[in-house]
Amino acid sequence: MSDSVAATAAHAAHAHHAELSFWRTYIFSTDHKMIGRQFLFLGLFMLVIGGLLAMTMRWELAWPETAVPGLGWIPEPYAYGGIIPPQTYNAFFTMHATIMIFFVVMPIMVGCFGNFLIPLMIGAGDMAFPRLNMLSFWTGLVSGIVMLAGFFVPGGPAASGWTAYAPLSAATAYTGVEWGQHLWIISLMFLGASSLMGSINYITTIVNMRAPGMSYFRMPLVIWSLFITAILLLLALPVLTAALAMLLFDRMAGTSFFLPQGGGEPLLWQHLFWFFGHPEVYVLVLPAMGVTSDILSTFSRKPIFGYHAMAFSMISIAFLSWIVWGHHMFVSGMNPLLGTAFMMSTMVIAIPSAIKTFNWLGTLWGGSIRFTSPMLFALGFVSNFLIGGLSGIFMASTPVDIFIHDTYYIVAHFHYVVAGIIFALFAAVYYWFPKMFGRMMNEPLGKIHFVLTYIFFNATFFPMHILGVGGHMRRIYNPTQYEFLQPLQGINVFITVSAFILGLSQIPFVVNFFWSLFGGKKAEKNPWQANTLEWTAASPPPHGNYEATPTVYRGAYEYSSPLVKEDWLPQNKLLEGGSAAARAH
Amino acid sequence: MMSWLPEDVSTFGGEIDHLFYLIYYITGAAFILVTVLMILFLIIYREREGRRATYSHGNTALEITWTIIPAIVFISLSFMSVSSWAKIKRHAPPSDFELQVTAKQFNWEVLYPGPDGKFGTEDDFQTDNDIHVPVHKVIRIHLKSRDVIHSFFLPNLRLKQDAVPGRDILVWFEATKPGKYELPCAELCGFGHSGMRGWLYVHAPEEYQKWAQETWAQKQ
Fold first, then answer.
1. pLDDT band at A578 (very low <50, low <70, confident <90, very high)
2. CA–CA separation, B155 and A181 (whole Å)
3. For residue A24, is it within any domain?
4. How far apart (Å, rounded) are the C-alpha atoms in residues A308 and A22?
5. Structural domain contains residue B178
6. In this structure, is residue A429 part of a structural domain?
7. What pTM was computed for the model?
């Protein structure tokens, strides 16, 4: 036993590579880095599907009831010669949101970067439970397959929105969708199990496996964000799973949790769903904030502004996220007094978000800013989050929400926040690609990708605010059916054209990603001259990550420190003189 | 952007619009402030030969300032919202004009109490999708649903309320201008959600009387 441990420590790479077959290395891997890459490919694949669904919807909204080019092959009754009927439209927006939230942002931001970064950045060899980690990925993959299977069952996929409001979702008669909705529920139960396994693993690893000297307040903010996210997931997902079980019983076993004719309460679903759903929003956005903080500091060559305030604002967001769910329900029929209470808590949760934005600004101040692709995307995230955060204040005010609730104003708001995460996601891919795959991505292509994405993201989502102010409802199939929306139709066309160009703007990324994977310039250990521990491992790191466990002497953001000549100072670099004091600390 | 707001013809819509504008100006100012600073910083502090970034971990006084100012703004905004919210959603004024609107896939059923002013009597009058009311009169509507959740949305009256099966939710409004206003459903309610709409006809008092008399007469 002790022999094998010693051998692993000494020759981590060779010892493992010799033993592991193709299957154990690439498919049924227990290596956190391979599982991270698997989550990345799963998420990118689903991003394509989610994006194509959005394009189809946008076509429908700009030119209602005309044939969508290229969709002539969809059989009746799901489409008629390429013309999408309302039922299919409802199914598409349901699946678009479900896929983007649960199968793109969660697998990539939490699954991929959580897995890849946590052990590397805290100086551990792997996750605490490598096999549980593998099971988490495979459960997630099964969940994805079950979700996509909805497209192939009679009646089509779920069509009651990603929020699946009962009673619409609770009885087949209301939507005409039987198995599609069942599969949607079952898939998300699997996903709940997958997230649960992942979050237990993340929490255990961060609590127990930090390298010597890596105190909580020396952890990079991206690790803080993933730690808090894991805690939110651990507590929120079981609520969703319980609600889904009740919904499935209502549909299949004749219970009436949410069906009023049997004594059930439709609003119970909304309370349970949003009790999960609001922390879920922060599950999505916190890792993006963490990634952004790290990248802004690295490329400003400057310590993050107010590290403690950044960590504590994330902690307070996490606490407050449990008491704001009612702001989704101001006009639901919930007691209006509760609405007042939820308005207060919602206004309060805006404070830590404001702190984060100002601190990012403070990080740029006095920096020496390098405009690399990851930096540009991180700045793009800040700019979008600013708009998404500010537009949220409108709907936090209960009287204003009466008007803008369920309009495109809400659609604009949550796309600036949730689809804005895609900027942090791309920032993270450009930034850590060298560490994940051992090769650099192409910088000019990355910059082209950024400029196009930034322009057309805003051209797509900003005009939705105007639609919302005009009263344009969400989730309607044909806006031209309404007289008061007819003057707004030109905006719908503009949005659709922008959305198509936004879709095409992703081609430079796809080309860059796959070309760099095989033909990119070989990456050195620390191409960005960054401080965090993962940059002291090989690119890509071998199984086991570090030849010897690193010792940490300082925080993650010692850029431009007066102690050294270079403008970076890695967390594990031993400085003469200061070492004894640092170690004691 | 705010010029796209539909014309407001309700007594409480002005309060909503006022808050809407107020938040628009506050967030607009915050947006401009942050964006201008960000662009300036990106230009001034771009990487240049021979310049090293400032080694600073933050500034407590600044951080306290930009915590307290947003906190004051946000909390003031919620206090300013409380009274309008209470007026619209909690304290429906008394009125002798009551209607029942029952949503179902994919229509609004409108029930009038008829000449006797009482529901559940012989002379009740039911119609689909059209609501006729007099101007300058408080209208109280009992909102119900037969099947799934719908949402009663009158953009011009700044009124929205979900209709929930199993509940009777009281909404009210007072229109200030005669006209014909669209009444879409704002909550996804199934494949016919898009196109589920009705009309609110706001009449001058004498016209309303005429409409009511003709309609009641027709029924008999």
1. low
2. 32
3. yes
4. 44
5. yes
6. no
7. 0.94
Residue A411's closest CA among A315, A347, A479? A479
Of the listed ranges A128-132, A280-284, A294-298, B49-53, the one predicted with least confidence:
B49-53
Question: What's the mean pLDDT in A411-423?
Answer: 96
Distance between A306 CA and the closest CA of chain B, angstroms:
5
> What confidence tens digit (pLDDT) does each residue in A185-238 have?
999 999 999 999 999 999 999 999 999 999 999 999 999 999 999 999 999 999
Q: What is the mean pLDDT of residues A513-527?
A: 96
Write the CATH number for B26.
1.10.287.90
The sign of the torsion formed by the CA atoms of A404, A410, A416, A418 equals positive
Number of helical H runs and strand E runs in chain B: 3, 10
Chain B environment of A347 (Cβ under 8 Å): 74-75, 77-78
Domain count, chain B: 2
Best mutation site among A61, A88, A168, A465 for testing chain B: the one with the most B CBs within 10 Å? A168
> Do B79 and B102 share a domain, yes or no?
no
Q: If phi over 0 gives left and psi between -120 and 50 gives alpha, with beta otherwise, what is residue A418? A: alpha
Q: Is residue B195 part of a domain?
A: yes
On whether residue A76 sits in a domain, the answer given is no
Determine the structural domain holding residue B206 and report its residue range.
98-219
Same domain? B41 vs B146: no
Same domain, B83 and B167: no
Rounded to two decimals, the ipTM of the complex is: 0.96
Q: How many CB pairs under 8 A join A and B?
A: 284
B103 shares a domain with B77? no
**pLDDT value, residue A20:** 78
Residue B52 domain-assigned?
no
Q: Does the pLDDT value for residue A3 go beyond 70? A: no
| Neighbour count for residue A351 (Cβ, 10 Å) | 23
Strands B197-203 and B130-134: parallel
Task: Kindly state whether residues B67 and B172 are assigned to the same domain.
Answer: no
Number of domains in chain A: 1
* Domain range for A8: 1-29
Nearest neighbour of A470 by CB, restricted to B4, B78, B165: B4
From chain B, the residues in CB contact with A394 under 8 A are 20, 23-24, 27
Asked if residue A9 is part of any domain, the answer here is yes
In a domain, B63, yes or no: yes
User: Rounded to an integer, what distance in angstroms lies between the CA atom of residue A291 and that of residue A313?
Assistant: 15
Same domain (yes/no): B72, B129: no
B-chain CB neighbours of A267 within 8 Å are: 164
pLDDT over 50 (residue A475): yes
Mean residue pLDDT across chain A: 94
CA A372/CA A378 separation, integer angstroms: 10
User: SS3 breakdown of chain A: % helix, strand, coil, rounded to 5?
Assistant: 70, 0, 30
Taking only the tens place, the pLDDT of each residue in B69-104 is 999 999 999 999 999 999 999 999 999 999 999 999
**Interface check A386 vs B, CB under 8 A:** yes
CB atoms B74 and A348 under 8 Å: yes
Q: For position B11, what pLDDT does the model report?
A: 96
Indicate the residue among B70, B90, B110 that finishes a domain: B90
With a pLDDT cut of 70, the percent of chain A lying above it is 95
